Amino acid sequence: MSPQPGFPATGPLAGVRILDLSSVVMGPYATQVLGDLGADVVKVESPAGDNLRAVGPMRNPGMGHLHLHLNRNKRSIALDLKTPEGREACLRLAEGCDALLYNIRPQAMARLGLSYEAVAARNPRIVYLGAYGFSEQGPYAGRPAYDDLIQGQTGIAALYAQQSGDVPRYAPLTLADRAVGLHAAIALVSAVLHARASGRGQQVEIPMFEGMAHMTLGDHLGGATFDPPLGPVGYARLLAPHRRPYATADGYLCLLIYNDKHWHNFFALIGRPELADDPRFRGHGARAAHIGEVYAFVADVVRQRATDDWLADLARADIPAARLHAIEDLLDDEHLAATGFIREQDHPTEGRLRTPAPLGRYAGTPTAIRRPAPALGQHSRELLAEAGYDDAAIDALFARGAARSTDSPEPTGKPDGL
User: Which of 125, 232, 252, 354 is a plausible cystine mate for 245, CB 3.0–4.6 Å?
Assistant: First the structure.
């Protein structure tokens, strides 16, 4: 990822500066998205670094694969916020920022001397956004919150069991972290727009539990939408046991026969046009009421032919279908290759890397990967200088251990969060 001289600002958020005190996935993903859109993201880490730096594979210590993706387009400053000097440096950085994002409890921020009141006293226009497990207004406030726990507490693991009849399981993604991270990114931009229009910042809370409950209940509130309920919770189509890639004679096929036209074309394709008048298939409501039988029928039909044969005939019949991809198939996907989605770039210390491109196209404000993911404290000196410290003051912060740069001594102890 060859550095550009001066790393010129590009993207629709150019000119927005964010102080990122978050760690692991949810907060860093939110600020990665915002950084891809052009924001100047200043990642504040403890002298030991973000935990995620230690998650391999990696070529060099502290530069794990997830860190390389989640923290591109950011600058890193390492501060010991438990020291008065480190806290003061953080507050001075906040004076020049549009927003501060953190993901520990508000009480912990207050103990560090970085409460909303303390930060707003230095910058009344700042958006102070906390993205953490549970709203401070409820009895779960302060409980530990990790992706697996939130998936379990919001019904996702149980939905897998309900659909398959198997044991509960977690989605093999950091689903809660990334979904709620997007909520946090949207909330931050919205609040910054308000602050710029009104001249007033504000405190914002984005909790993981409520964020994922919003997602699961949006699909599965079902009959409980109504008072009194009109039936059980759950969206029957999503819970049907055969709602999964269909086995073919030689592999798997992703297929969704959805509207009346699709069904009529499918029945003609398989030589059973009379099924269009079957009460189970006659209209969307009837199919929804018999969704288990409908998916089971399709599963029985699809397994009789090879995947390529199905794909060719379904395309001619204008029925949505796709080949089942494994993760490694995405690296060679012809569409992603044509759109330049997988970027191959050179990192100054980590060598040749692959990474997904910033999402979307902006004709007037194009996005870019302006900066590679930083080493711990790589930009400490330049950021402290931007905050008004002279060289002697910066050297004193390093000497006292209140700040760390890439050329200062390694801290003792294990990596941890803020």
Answer: 252
164 and 56 in one domain? yes
Asked if residue 354 and residue 312 are part of one domain, the reply reads no
Report yes or no: 79 and 90 within 8 Å, Cβ to Cβ.
Answer: yes
Residue 42 — φ and ψ, nearest 5°?
-105, 110
3-class SS of residue 219: helix
Q: Determine the structural domain holding residue 345 and report its residue range.
A: 17-215+335-404
Alpha carbon distance 326, 307 (integer Å): 15
CATH number of the domain within which 285 lies:
3.30.1540.10
Q: Classify residue 416: in a domain, yes or no.
A: no
3-state class of 110 per DSSP? helix
**305 neighbors 253 (Cβ within 8 angstroms):** no
CB within 8 Å of 352: residues ≥ 6 apart: 344, 345, 346
pLDDT tens-digit profile of 108-155?
999 999 999 999 999 999 999 999 999 999 999 999 999 999 999 999
For residues 181, 187, 188 and 192, what is the CA-based torsion angle, rounded to 10 degrees?
A: 170
Using the CB atoms, write b or e for 373-382: b if 16+ within 10 Å.
bbbbbbbbbe
The total number of structural domains that make up the chain = 2
Confidence label for 408 from pLDDT (cuts 50, 70 and 90): low
Query: Does residue 97 sit in the same domain as residue 171?
Result: yes
Residue 10's pLDDT is: 84
Looking up tokens 């504000």 gives 202
Which H or E run contains 44?
strand 40-45
Do 309 and 349 sit in the same domain of this protein? no
Q: Is there a contact between 73 and 41 (Cβ–Cβ < 8 Å)?
A: yes
Of the three residues 296, 323, 350, the one that is the final residue of a domain is 323
Q: Answer whether residue 376 shows pLDDT above 90.
A: yes
Q: With beta carbons less than 8 A apart as the criterion, state whether 369 and 357 touch.
A: yes
Average pLDDT estimate for 101-109? 95
Q: Please check whether residues 173 and 254 belong to one and the same domain.
A: no
Q: Is the pLDDT of residue 405 over 70?
A: yes
Q: Which helix (DSSP H) or strand (DSSP E) does residue 289 occupy? A: helix 284-289
What mean pLDDT is reported for the chain? 93
User: Model pTM?
Assistant: 0.92
For residues 250 and 50, give the distance between their C-alpha atoms in angstroms, rounded to a whole number.
45
What tens digit of pLDDT does each residue of 311-327 get? 999 999 999 999 999 99
